[in-house]
Write a structure and sequence with these properties.
The complex is a heterodimer of chains A (263) and B (244).
Chain A (H helix, E strand, L loop, with lengths): L2 H16 L2 H28 L6 H31 L3 H5 L5 H31 L9 H27 L4 H15 L10 H7 L3 H15 L4 H32 L8
Chain B lengths: L2 E10 L2 E11 L4 E5 L6 H8 L7 E6 L2 E2 L5 H5 L2 E4 L11 H11 L5 H11 L15 H13 L5 E5 L7 H17 L3 E5 L3 H7 L2 E6 L2 E6 L1 H7 L5 H10 L6
Parallel strand pairs in B: 3-8, 3-9, 6-7, 7-8
Antiparallel strand pairs in B: 1-2, 1-4, 4-5, 9-10
The chains are: A mainly alpha (263), B alpha/beta (244).
């Protein structure tokens, strides 16, 4: 892999963001709105119920972590869609770059885009709701790593769909995360789900990530085995995502969709 | 021969887009690829760029089979321009050339961008966003991108489509000048017969995915008893019997 080319692919998106103030505002706006929304909802629950004394902390931390996953995945998809919308797709795929370099660049740039939005939102939550995601301590890094890998995997699957079905697959890009959210047990423990769905949910890294987050915040205990399990599941999905992306690319070459991909 | 196309075939579902074509292009020659819309020109170019996988046949470049070469090795030596694909609209001209220069691994990139910008007269709008440019300006930027890596093979798909006569003439003149100064093999797909006569050493005529004639412009015009290439094109495009 050539890191200069990976940098060049990333530079295209860095220029895109830095050239446009509305784009920067857009990146920051949605995570911040999310924090406000969930912050006030959970504050209401705290005031109305004695059951959860730490509702704000748990829900808001879950919202921040989920938003990180959402931003990583959407950023990955968006960068790919930007190439389709700008009709730059053919130029990109005739440049002497490897598919692995495209994936690496999208993966690295996605985290940058996600952090641009998320860091201000996480900082705002500290004075506004007295909630700091950093209270999770060192495990936070591992939870973010697992979310990052899974977010990129979702991005890979959606971009594979874009390669396979063309821009009409765009709507699926937006819907993909909402589809997984109920199974991910982001805001509630896995026991809430019916037994049949619990089985499916355990196959997702999200359940392990958010169960662990709740365990740290409620009980102050860390189960590193569960964290390793979530990272391992994410890695398996990531490898599958990469394989599917390669297969979709080869399929697109057979169908000839790379040369006329556009709006 | 520098480029050899052997028995190349591409089928999309039940449509035979390219039907067993064969042609060669000598080093530093410019060959025109002509034919009515949907005759298989873009599909042929797509296969040469590695964007479309042929059903059968071979593409041999500089004695190496495209299938056996690594994708980025061959693409580093080729470039492509077409008005139907664009550069990122929100990036400035300079940023686009920088990004593509880096992707092509161009050495002394600043100097190369400077050189090509002066040659193509794009410096006056260097810091404007590409999406804000006129068709003629965009076309020159696209050409600059296609030459950023000093390609050995340049594939041009209707490079002057939608340009006014003045800018079209500038672009044709520039391609002529560039060819005379640099070692470049050009495959030009065009519907502008004057452009083809002016730029091409020889032409290949396609119809319904097949090659129906080939030769120099003069040879083909003479063979079909017409006065110019435009008339010859019309005759071949409208004829029911395909010639080989």
């Amino acid at each position: 892999m050539n890191f200069s080319k990976i940098y060049a692919l990333g530079l295209r998106h860095i220029y895109l963001i830095s050239n446009s103030l509305p784009r920067i505002i857009d990146l920051i706006y949605w995570p911040t709105v999310q924090i406000f929304l969930w912050g006030f909802i959970s504050k209401f629950f705290t005031l109305s119920s004695d059951y959860y004394s730490n509702t704000v902390g748990i829900i808001l931390t879950a919202a921040i972590l989920y938003d990180f996953l959402f931003r990583v995945s959407i950023s990955f998809n968006m960068m790919f869609l930007e190439e389709i919308w700008s009709r730059n797709f053919t130029n990109l795929f005739i440049a002497p770059i490897k598919i692995s370099e495209i994936i690496t660049s999208l993966t690295l740039t996605a985290v940058l885009r996600a952090l641009i939005g998320l860091v201000p939102a996480a900082i705002i939550a500290i004075p506004l709701f007295g909630v700091s995601v950093f209270k999770l301590g060192l495990p936070l890094l591992f939870l973010l790593l697992s979310l990052y890998l899974f977010g990129v995997t979702l991005g890979l699957l959606v971009t594979s769909g874009l390669l396979r079905f063309g821009p009409s697959f765009e709507n699926i890009a937006w819907a993909s995360l909402f589809f997984l959210a109920p199974l991910g047990c982001i805001y509630y423990p896995i026991e809430v789900l019916p037994n049949s769905l619990q089985f499916l949910a355990k196959g997702l890294p999200l359940v392990h990530i958010f169960e662990e987050m709740r365990s740290i915040l409620l009980n102050g205990t860390v189960d590193y085995l569960d964290i390793i399990k979530s990272i391992s599941i994410s890695i398996v999905y990531f490898v599958l995502g990469v394989i599917i992306f390669y297969l979709s690319f080869l399929g697109a070459k057979v169908r000839g969709t790379l040369i006329n991909m556009g709006e | 021969m520098f480029i050899q196309i052997k028995n190349l075939t591409k089928k999309f579902n039940n449509t035979l887009a390219v039907n067993n074509i064969n042609f060669n292009i000598g080093k530093n020659k410019t060959v025109g690829l002509l034919g009515p819309n949907g005759c298989g020109k873009t599909t042929s170019i797509g296969m040469m760029l590695g964007l479309i996988k042929p059903n059968s046949g071979e593409i041999i470049i500089d004695n190496k089979n495209l299938e056996t070469l690594s994708r980025d090795d061959i693409l580093a030596r080729i470039n492509f321009a077409s008005p139907y694909i664009e550069l990122p609209k929100k990036l400035t001209v300079r940023q686009n050339l920088e990004v593509y220069g880096r992707l092509y691994g161009v050495k002394k990139l600043k100097d190369r961008i400077e050189e090509i910008s002066e040659d193509l007269d794009i410096k006056s709008f260097f810091n404007r966003k590409t999406g804000e440019l006129s068709s003629g300006q965009k076309n020159r930027v696209s050409l600059a991108k296609s030459l950023i890596n000093k390609p050995e093979i340049l594939l041009l798909d209707e490079p002057t489509a939608s340009l006014d006569p003045d800018i079209g003439d500038f672009v044709r003149g520039y391609i002529q000048k560039y060819r005379s100064k640099n070692q470049v093999t050009v495959l030009l797909a065009s519907h502008n017969m004057n452009e083809v006569e002016r730029l091409c050493d020889s032409i290949i005529m396609m119809k319904n995915g097949k090659i129906i004639d080939r030769g120099t412009c003069e040879e083909i015009i003479k063979k079909h008893g017409r006065n110019n290439l435009e008339e010859t094109f019309l005759k071949l495009a409208r004829s029911k019997d395909e010639l080989q």
